Amino acid sequence: QVQLVESGGGLVQTGGSLRLSCAASGRTFSNRAMGWFRQAPGKEREFVAAISWSDNIYYADSVTGRFTISRDNAKNTVYLQMNTLNPEDTAVYYCAADRRPLRTAVTTTLREYDYWGQGTQVTVSS
């Protein structure tokens, strides 16, 4: 059974930091891009960051310079380091795996990701 399990969410004050982890089990995703998405209350799920199997990286404009995505294929885990958090970052954060192996360029399109975690809540207080 394939599972993606996010962890590391929580409550943090404005300006604080959190590091999210997404551990995969059931198969390896080393040949796939991995992405982070988020969904705030009443809003659609949106792209945050993604890293390809060859370590090409892309960020949403809203997090560029503050968030860093990385992966450890030996641990089958992808990370999202989030710095300088603000209340607009409050959301449930999801990790996902690209449905197409060996895609060179990362995709920001939700439907291109076929495995999803259950999400982890990030709340930033003002």
Query: What gyration radius follows from the Cα positions, in whole Å?
Result: 13 Å
Order of helices and strands: EEEEEEEEEEE
Count of helix runs:
0
Please give the number of β-strands.
11
Rounded average pLDDT: 96
Tell me what the structure shows.
- The protein has 126 residues and is mostly beta strands.
- It is 0% helix and 49% strand.
- It contains no helices and 11 strands.
- The protein has strands spanning 3-7, 10-13, 18-25, 34-39, 46-51, 57-59, 67-72, 77-82, 91-98, 113-116, 120-125.
- The strands form 2 sheets. Strands 2, 4, 5, 6, 9, 10 and 11 form a 7-stranded mixed sheet that branches. A 4-stranded antiparallel sheet has the order 1-3-8-7, with no helix packed on it.
- The chain is globular.
- The N and C termini lie far apart (40 Å).
Task: State the main characteristics.
single chain, mainly beta, 126 residues
Short synopsis of the structure:
The chain has strands at about 5, 10-15, 20-25, 35-40, 45-50, 55-60, 65-70, 75-80, 90-100, 115, 120-125. It is mostly beta strands and about 130 residues long.
